[in-house]
Amino acid sequence: MASPNLLPVDMKIKVFVYGTLMPGECNHQAYCHRQIEPPTLGYVLGQIYHLQYFGYPALAIGEDRVWGYCLTFPPGFSLEHLDSLEDYQPGRSPQENVYDRCWAEIFDPQDQVMTEAWLYRMDSRKIEQYGGIYLPHGRWSGKL
């Protein structure tokens, strides 16, 4: 897996979304309007939980297929807007961040590696603290 810190500056920015940033969900239009390619269905390995008290999901380390979309933004796109939504600040301790921004492999529906992208993941202890409900089918919807 390539290090995201070594990517060329003219490279498109890819972000995997599995919650409120997905097409049709409440934050998609406000935060993802700068996409330059159509969203692509795919999955990452992990475990997804519904945070019932907050109304959005969290992704933890795991081996389930967690379905979502890979979004592509133009070269030079700043992740600060998304980081703010996810309460993530680079350089802040993991205990202070709600989510951690990670680099991960994204798989297509035929189980082939499609690309690599940023995603926001939450520590399993935080998920438990926030009353997370495990979603074994690997999909979240704001219509839960």
TrEMBL record:
Identify the domain of life. Answer: Bacteria
List the source organism.
Synechocystis sp. (strain ATCC 27184 / PCC 6803 / Kazusa)
Q: Which SUPFAM superfamilies match?
A: Gamma-glutamyl cyclotransferase-like (SSF110857)
* InterPro entries xref list: AIG2-like_dom, GGCT-like, GGCT-like_sf
A Pfam family (short name) is GGACT
Q: Where is the Gamma-glutamylcyclotransferase AIG2-like domain?
A: 15-141
In its UniProt entry, what is this protein called?
Slr0491 protein
